[in-house]
């Protein structure tokens, strides 16, 4: 998302992504941003309207800046810049589907660290950690992560369910960008509670 892709002229902001999954069919995509979404986006708006609002590169730079600000001891000359001259991996200026998913996984692992002895130990490399775990422990770790991680599609799934429940199938279809209501039906759960309520009244 970039500022140049958002029309902020009205009370409802309209975001037109430069790329989306149905563009090859010649379909346009407009995403309306209401007051809550605007409050989330606003702090990320910068003077550079071409810059991506959510940037791993800027996030890493901000992280190091915060660490320097919170440091209690004086920075030694040899510690002023520890950046590698030619790092193998550099943070991108925007999130991809893959990097977005990995960032969520890392955040979940930090919030819900696996218990001992499944967790990675201090000073242990990834290779050492993986080789230390037995096949049974690998299975336990996989089960732990399944319970303590979430996928961004769950947000979309939940939104689809709420939109259809409150505003109907057609509104949910437009908001989600589906061309066919059949897709929306597959995406959103059937609201069993409302069905039960209807049958209670209907008999």
Walk me through the structure:
By secondary structure, this protein is mainly α. The protein has helices spanning 35-41, 56-70, 97-111, 126-132, 135-148, 153-167, 169-176, 181-187, 192-202, and strands at 6-7, 13-15, 31-33. Among the domains are: 3-44, no CATH class; 153-202, no CATH class. It is built from nine helices and three strands; from the N terminus they run βββααααααααα. The mean pLDDT is 81.
How many strand units? 3
Shape estimate: extended
Main-sheet strand order equals 1-2-3
Strand content: under 5%
Question: Main attributes?
Answer:
3 strands; mainly alpha; three-stranded antiparallel β-sheet; extended; 203 residues
Which helices and strands occur, and which strands form pairs?
Layout: E1 6-7, E2 13-15, E3 31-33, H1 35-41, H2 56-70, H3 97-111, H4 126-132, H5 135-148, H6 153-167, H7 169-176, H8 181-187, H9 192-202
Antiparallel strand pairs: 1-2, 2-3
Helix pairs in contact: 6-7, 7-8
Give a brief description.
The protein has 203 residues and is mostly helical. It is built from nine helices and three strands; from the N terminus they run E-E-E-H-H-H-H-H-H-H-H-H.
